[in-house]
UniProtKB/TrEMBL annotation:
Chain residue ranges for the region called Disordered: 281-301
Keywords: Oxidoreductase
Family annotation (PROSITE patterns): ADH_SHORT
Protein name, per record: Short chain dehydrogenase
Family per similarity comment: Belongs to the short-chain dehydrogenases/reductases (SDR) family.
Entry keyword annotation includes Glycoprotein: no
Organism field: Patulibacter medicamentivorans
One MF annotation (Gene Ontology) recorded for this entry: oxidoreductase activity, acting on the CH-OH group of donors, NAD or NADP as acceptor
InterPro entries: NAD(P)-bd_dom_sf, Sc_DH/Rdtase_CS, SDR_fam
Length: 301
């Protein structure tokens, strides 16, 4: 017998990097389900605008300052949300950046920034929320990774490494929770290229339809209602991953060429991406306002 979908009405969700893109659409989708939503973002002003936009229907939506690279900031975010809205039921580690450019052209600041946000941001969220979930014996951790966490794509070497980390971390946490007989759920979301600012200037691939942030948000909500670990968006990406997994290396690389996945990122239009990449570079809280990054050869999402 199929599992009955869980009712999400009245639950509390916290979303990192929730002011725009996938985070914003996930917040919107959860609001439709009657979930109280906390949006954490480094850009507090934009987060407040997003909260005001999404909270017009009466469901509680609040904005909070959040620097995912700072564990104390993550703890303060969680404490504030739980004081305002109640115990968190859903924690969505969504914040991330994606510089585009060859590995040898990537400057050290860009490398550190990706690791700080994409790796430590997820670690900090998990380390702060999971003890609360485990103690309450309920809760659902959602880590947004990428199809880049399942393969290596030219033009985003460090990004791929960070997303491989998110997938591996999520799998290990899931196994440890199961070993401890904990009912806490973990979901790892692996979208293909999503039509957000992050994807500006990227080439299209073959065989996988364009994915929108609304598609990813819908898949996340579905996984919250009927819990599952692997969430590929679109589903065809999961099929492609399965096929790739059984092919020898030459076959995988040949298929990647046929799908144009080998050039989708490395042949990006960097002039089109410049606005995004400057904004992503400024996401480093240690940079002074107006600071120009030393190199924009590797764009950030």
């Amino acid at each position: 017998m199929a599992k009955q979908p869980r009712v999400l009405v009245g639950q509390v969700a916290a979303i990192t990097g929730g002011a725009r893109g996938i985070g914003k659409e996930t917040a919107r989708a959860l609001v439709r389900e009657g979930v109280k939503v906390a949006i954490g973002d480094l850009d507090l002003e934009l987060a407040q605008k997003t909260a005001a936009e999404l909270g017009g229907g009466g469901t509680a939506v609040r904005a909070y300052p959040l620097d995912v690279t700072d564990r104390e900031s993550v703890r303060a975010f969680i404490d504030a949300v739980e004081a305002d809205l109640g115990p968190i039921d859903i924690f969505d580690s969504n914040a991330g950046i994606m510089p585009v450019g060859t590995f040898l052209e990537e400057d050290d600041d860009s490398t550190r920034r990706q690791i700080d946000i994409n790796v430590y941001g997820v670690i900090n969220g998990a380390k702060e929320i999971l003890p609360r979930f485990v103690e309450r014996r309920r809760g659902h951790l959602v880590n947004v990774a990428s199809m880049a966490g399942k393969g290596g794509f030219p033009g985003v070497a460090t990004y791929c490494g960070t997303k491989h980390f998110v997938v591996g971390l999520s799998e290990s946490i899931r196994g440890e929770l199961a070993y401890a007989d904990s009912p806490v759920e973990v979901t790892c979301v692996m979208p293909a290229i999503v039509q957000t600012e992050l994807a500006t200037g990227l080439k299209a691939t073959r065989g996988v339809k364009p994915t929108t942030p609304e598609d990813v948000a819908e898949a996340i909500v579905d996984a919250l209602k009927v819990p599952r670990f692997d969430v590929f968006v679109p589903k065809a990406a999961g099929v492609a991953n399965t096929v790739m997994g059984v092919l020898p290396r030459r076959g995988r690389e040949g298929l990647a060429r046929a799908l144009k996945a080998d050039v989708a990122l490395i042949e990006a239009d960097h002039s089109a991406r410049r606005g995004y990449e400057v904004r992503a570079a400024e996401s480093d809280p240690h940079l002074e306002a107006g600071h120009q990054p030393a190199s924009l050869g590797a764009g950030e999402d």
